[in-house]
Design brief:
Layout lengths: L6 H7 L6 H33 L1 H20 L4 H13 L4 H11 L6 H26 L2 H4 L9 H4 L3 H21 L13 H38 L19 H4 L5 H9 L10 H4 L2 H13 L1
Helix pairs in contact: 1-2, 2-3, 2-4, 3-4, 3-9
């Protein structure tokens, strides 16, 4: 998604042809190479995840996508750009593995629709932020001449910066996945996971530091309460008394006992809360038609 804003200018910078129509064809080849390679290897990655587990396949997909972006950013010609995009598709055919992981992680069927709704939400969010990020960071020596000087690495490879930023984001995702993502395969989830153990060790350090901070606050509060008790003045022994203040008659004793008629009248005055509108009222016919229409356009 992030290459869409600048792919035309990138193909034009290769100086392959001067015909604008040919540039559009080459741009379409580059953008479709990823999807074709991903389509070709989707079943293979699914079978491999049944043998080695879901987590290694997902982490390999993220790492492969980051590597392909670096190759694409450093591409000096059209064949290298095609190779980078195709490599990303070959190493990232794990959409089915991701859906299987979600299904194995959320075992309660009532909660699965909520979990599956997160994936298209994240996809749409990436479709919005990705092109904006790619268009803003492409050709930085022309867009931001005060920050990126001529003759530097970003001048020689003007489309490296957006791919480099995406690769760094993917590297963070790989690190988080290795440390905190649990294996969901029934036969592989009981195997030893060194990365998950390291993540638990890191979390234990943070929790210990947090508990120490909370203990220090509790100790400070205890010292403050003790100082308050010492500063309070006590009454002299001669003025102490065991008698309390005079009590007023209770309002319950003065009020008459409720009668059955009054109880029935009070019960009639209790208002019931209106029920919240259900999902069926929100997703009416017009809303469903709009969702289907936008899905066809996408």
């Amino acid at each position: 998604m992030s290459i869409f804003p600048y792919i035309y200018y990138m193909i034009s910078s290769f100086n392959i042809t001067e015909d604008n129509r040919q540039i559009a064809i080459y741009a379409g080849m580059v953008t479709s190479a990823f999807a074709f390679a991903e389509f070709s290897t989707g079943v293979i990655w699914g079978r491999l995840s049944d043998r080695v587990g879901r987590k290694p396949v997902l982490m390999t997909g993220l790492a492969g996508t980051g590597l392909s972006m670096l190759i694409f950013g450093f591409a000096p010609s059209l064949p290298v750009a095609l190779l980078g995009r195709a490599l990303g598709g070959f190493l990232n055919g794990n959409i089915g593995v991701l859906q299987t992981t979600v299904a194995e992680m959320i075992t309660v069927k009532e909660h699965q629709p909520r979990a599956y709704a997160i994936m298209p939400f994240v996809w749409c969010l990436g479709s919005i932020l990705g092109p904006a990020l790619g268009g803003a960071l492409a050709q930085p020596c022309e867009s931001y001449p005060s920050m990126f000087k001529r003759g530097t690495l970003f001048d020689r490879y003007p489309f490296l910066l957006p791919n480099l930023v995406c690769a760094v984001i993917l590297a963070c995702g790989v690190a988080v996945g290795i440390l905190f993502l649990e294996e969901t395969h029934d036969e592989k989830k009981y195997n030893r996971d060194v990365g998950l153990q390291a993540g638990k060790w890191i979390l234990s350090k943070f929790r210990r530091a947090e508990s120490e901070v909370l203990d220090s606050f509790k100790a400070a509060d205890a010292n403050l309460d003790e100082s308050r008790s010492l500063l309070e003045d006590e009454q002299p022994p001669g003025y102490r008394t065991t008698e309390g203040s005079p009590r007023q008659p209770s309002s319950r004793a003065l009020s008459p006992a409720p009668t059955p008629d009054s109880c029935s009248l009070n019960s009639d005055k209790v208002f019931k809360k209106n029920p919240r509108p259900g999902v069926q009222k929100a997703f009416n016919k017009q809303v469903i038609l709009n969702i289907v229409g936008y899905g066809i356009l996408a």
